TrEMBL record, chains A, B:
Pfam families per UniProt: AIRS (PF00586), AIRS_C (PF02769)
Record's miscellaneous remark: Reaction mechanism of ThiL seems to utilize a direct, inline transfer of the gamma-phosphate of ATP to TMP rather than a phosphorylated enzyme intermediate.
Protein EC: 2.7.4.16
Amino acids binding Mg(2+) 3: D28, D73, D210
Annotated residues for binding of ATP: G119, D120, R144, S212
Protein known as: Thiamine-monophosphate kinase
Residues at which Mg(2+) 1 binds: T44, D45, D120
Family listed: Belongs to the thiamine-monophosphate kinase family.
Domain PurM-like N-terminal: 26-134
Domain PurM-like C-terminal: from-to ranges: 148-301
Organism: Hydrogenophaga crocea
Keywords linked to the UniProt accession: ATP-binding, Kinase, Magnesium, Metal-binding, Nucleotide-binding, Thiamine biosynthesis, Transferase
Amino acid sequence: MGEFELIARHFTRPAPAPEAVVLGVGDDCALLRPTPGHLLAISTDMLVEGRHFFAGAEPEALGHKALAVNLSDLAAMGARPLGFTLALALPAADEAWLAAFARGLFALADAHACPLVGGDTTRGPLNLCITVFGERRPGQALRRNAARAGDELWLSGRTGEARLALALRRGEAWARGELAAVADRMDRPTPRLALGQALAATPGVHAALDVSDGLAGDIGHILEASGVGAEIEADALPVAPALQALDRPHRLDCLLAGGDDYELLFTADPAAHAAVRAAGAQTGVAVTRIGRITAAPGLRVLDAQRQAVPLRTRGFDHFAAD
Amino acid sequence: MGEFELIARHFTRPAPAPEAVVLGVGDDCALLRPTPGHLLAISTDMLVEGRHFFAGAEPEALGHKALAVNLSDLAAMGARPLGFTLALALPAADEAWLAAFARGLFALADAHACPLVGGDTTRGPLNLCITVFGERRPGQALRRNAARAGDELWLSGRTGEARLALALRRGEAWARGELAAVADRMDRPTPRLALGQALAATPGVHAALDVSDGLAGDIGHILEASGVGAEIEADALPVAPALQALDRPHRLDCLLAGGDDYELLFTADPAAHAAVRAAGAQTGVAVTRIGRITAAPGLRVLDAQRQAVPLRTRGFDHFAAD
C-alpha cells in the first residue's frame, strides 16, 4: 500500500466538516474560516517513541493521547478547537496499527468537533506531531503573564496518577497499587476544554496553563511571566485514592512533580471564588484552591504548619542530564 | 543546558513581531489575528533524517529547507505567510548545530515576514516538523480541483536539478557534472511565494500545486481532483544547463520524476497566457507552458513527433516497496 492510499484509507473521512473548514485533507493547504473578530490560537506537540510513550504502546490510546495533549494547550488558553494537522513518521505501514491509532484519534476529535484538516506521513522512527488550531474572543485568552499577587491558585482535577502509572509500569520500588486504577490517567488524559472556555469567560480569572511537566515546575512559567511568586498548600492538593497508599514523600513527588497530568493550573481574584466553583460545577470538573499568588518571588510549598516541604524533583526537562 | 533555556537561546527573538502575531513563543498557544474576511491556509511537513536529508546534513541548509518546503505549500495555494510552528526532536542538545539551524531557518523566515510563533523540542531521532499558516482572500485560493479541459499547463522555474544533486551525492553511475552546480537546488529550494500570490490574483489561473515528489506523479493529484487528463510536451520542459550532459532517458527522469523541486505546476485558461507571463516577469520567476489539460483522463508525455515518452519512474512514495 502506497503513501497516498494509506492516507486516504485511514485519514480521509466522509463526515461533514464543520462550517469553519472550507477545505480539509488533500490539497497543498487546508483552508479554515475563523469566526470574524476572533483570535486564532495555535499549539504544537511532538511525541517520540521511547520518550513520550513506551515502544509498543497501544495505538488506540496513542491516537487519543497525541491529540489530547494538544487540546490541553487550547484548554489552557480558553480556546475553542477548530481543527488539527497530523504529521506522522512510521517505521512501516502497519494497517492494524494505523486503524487503531486513527480510531483513538478520531474518537477524541469527534468528541470536541475538532476535525483533521491536513497532514503528512513518512517513513521514519515513530514520531507523532500534531498542531492544533482554536479560536477565542480577543481579551478572553488565558495567558501565563496575567497572575496577580493576592490571586487564589486553583487546580482542575488531580495530579500524580499518571506518574504512579509510569512507576508501576517501570517497576519502581516505591510504587504501590494496581496499574489498572491509574493507567488511563497516563494513557488517555482528558483535555479540560469546556472548563478552560468557561474560565476564560469568567471575570477575575487571570492566568492559566496546563500542567504537563509537573505542577511545581510548570507553575514557574506563570510566576516568571507574571513577575510574582506563589505558595502551594501541600495538604490542599487533591489526592486520588490510588495515591493514598504511598508514603508521603513519594505521594508529594507524584502530586507536585509527576508530569503527564494535563490539568489546568490557574489563578483568579478571590472575589471570583464562587464563579470559579460554578465554572467547575457547570463543566463537571473538580476545581480545588491549592494556594495563592504572592508578591514575593519564588515558589514555596508549605505543610499544615506552614513549614517548607522539600521538593526532591522538579518538572521534566527533555534535555536535562539523565 | 535545559530544554527551556535551549528554546530561549535559539528560538526566542527580540525582533518586533508582525501585527498579525498577538502572542508568539512562550505560552500554551500562540495567538494570531488573521486579516478580517480572509481564509486561513495551513500546511504541515515532517522531515526525517536519513529519509528527507542525509545524516550529517549541514544544519543551516536544513533550517532553510525545513521551512522552504512548507512555504512552498502556501505558495501553491497563493497564500501570504503569517507564521509557523516548529517541533524538533534532537538526539542531543548540540549548541553549534542549533545555532546554525536557527540561522538558516530565520534567514528564510525573515525574508518572507513569516515569524516563528510556537514550537516544541524534545529528545529523539532527528525529526523536524513545521506547520505553516498563511492567509488568502476567499475565492482566490489556488486549488487542485479547478483545472479545466483546454487549460494551458505551466511550470515555474525548472525541475530535475535536485534529483541530479542527489544522484551525484549517492554516486549513481549515470550522473554527470559538478555537484556544486546543483547542490543548492537540493539543499536550499526557493518557495515561489510571490509568484503564487500573483497567480492567485490573476483571473483565469485555475489549479496549482507545488511539485515535491516529481512532476509526472504530482500532476496526478490535479488530474484526479479535477477529473481531467493532461499532455506534457517533453521538449517544452525547461532544461537546466547542468542537465544537458545527461543522456535523454535520465534527463527525462530528472525532469519528470526527480522530486524535491518545489516549483509550481499550474493551469490557466489560454486567454490568460499573457497575464501568466506578466505574473512571472513581475515576480522574477521563469514560467513555461509545458502542455495542456485534456478532457480525456490520464497523463500523456509526448515527444516532438507526438509519440508517447515512456516514464520509467513515478513520483516518490514514502511507503512504496523499496
